[in-house]
Amino acid sequence: MQTPTGPATLDFDACYRAASGRDARWDGRVYLGVTSTGIYCRPSCPARKPRRENCRFYASAAACVAAGFRACKRCRPEAVPGTRDWDARGDLVARAVRRIRDGAVDTVGVAGLAAELAVSERHLRRMLLEEVGVGPLQLARNRRAHAARALIEETDLPLADVAFAAGFGSVRQFGDTMREEFGIAPSALPRRSQPERPSDPAGPVSDERPKLALRLRTRAPFAAAGVRAFLAAHAIPGRDLIDPAGPTSHAIDLPGGTAVVRIDWGDVPSVAEQLAGDPGVRGAGAAGARVVGVPIVLSLPGLADTMPAIQVVRRLLDLDADPAQIASALGDDPVLAPIMLRRPGLRLPGARHAAEFALGTVLGQQISLAAARTIQGRMAAAFEVTPSSGSGAAPGFVAHPDPRSIADTSADELRARLGLTRARADTLRALATALAEGLELGPGADRDAVRATLLAIRGIGPWTVELVAMRALGDPDAFPAGDLILKRALGTERESVARELSQRWRPFRGYATQYLWSDFLEAASGKDTP
């Protein structure tokens, strides 16, 4: 009889072969619990592999903790970057996992999450237990614990502030959870001997607007130049600041107000250095995938916004992607292989704010990228959302545009203020009305329903819908077959041919699109940007 694995979706024999071969490709997707030691590890852990009968496999670190295991101190399974496997699916469990990853349990609770997904709390727990091996509360606790450990290691915040920033309700809860996860008290966890202190021309660190310097982990190779080129090519005046020879800064919108993230690209090792073992690239254990840290500085409305800010930045830079998985799926394709050899580790950046991206995509229909940026900047300045009471403004940046304000503005006034055609103004207003009335474009949204709703709006076609699915909904298989640059890269003028060619790239057609766009985006990023 096959040894039980926990979740029914895991195949014990395949998992055991991966662990026996220390296969780093399984890191972050499968976790090994060892009954004889009470420890859980990543499959690539260099420690001696346990006997078969002592192995249990789980789909999440949270499930390991719920089963009574604590994290291995040697391979640090909690330090593995996330996985986009859940993003490739559109079912209830995947939507729930994505929302929990974004902090839904902390903000709306399990009852609120179940209501968002239109199911009962009981059904939600049952489905998560069957596929993930743990319920929503344990998933949220695990998320907070791993974030807290990263803050302990990366910052000099007092432990009480770490607990608050990671979303714990009390210091006692923080301590209990950390002991359960790691087997030691938070005060016993190692801290960086000389924490980096953020330097920023906007001013010093303050209690009113704290700044945190962090290195966000991602799997190598990480094509920093390609991601930077994408951000520069899509930079919006008032929302992004691009230093041609230095860091980039971006406004991000959080529950407490507008924050700013500065990304220090010059401190990211090149892809060649990442793969050659540069000292700045952290090893993930013997035979494990290498992990690179992306240095950022967050200027926050308050410490409570730390976790949401980190998640937005991870999505913006696609830090949970697995380049080995993408290369395995696409690297043998005759069209994509030459581009992937030139640009290994390219990512699929997400939208920092789903509604803003959707509105901006409508503005960008059938015009150049530079013209779209200009109009999007006008929209942000003209319809900036009013900050909630007590939230701090980000100096030098504007917040995202307010869909309700746009919906309440006549089409004629939109034409005059933004420089639009009448048809484009009507479409923008219709979409803004749908967003203001509750159209959800976030990670927990029903992708099929969103696609149908958007297509029903006059003036929105498949190109816009697929871009929204790719960047806002986070669908890695979205494919804008009618895109002009994409068709040129594929050597065809026919959308049907592009769509037919794309079938062999599923479920990663979004990444294939990014590679096909990469030459154009690099050229576009060299032009004047905000």
From TrEMBL:
The keyword DNA damage applies. It catalyses: Hydrolysis of alkylated DNA, releasing 3-methyladenine, 3-methylguanine, 7-methylguanine and 7-methyladenine. Residues 185-208 are annotated as: Disordered. This is DNA-3-methyladenine glycosylase II. Residues 94-192 form the HTH araC/xylS-type domain. It comes from the Bacteria. Its EC number is 3.2.2.21. It comes from Leucobacter rhizosphaerae. It is an enzyme of class 3 (hydrolase). Transmembrane segments: none annotated. The keyword DNA damage applies. Its cofactor is Zn(2+). Keywords: Activator, DNA damage, DNA repair, Methyltransferase, Transcription, Transcription regulation, Transferase. CDD domains: ENDO3c (cd00056).
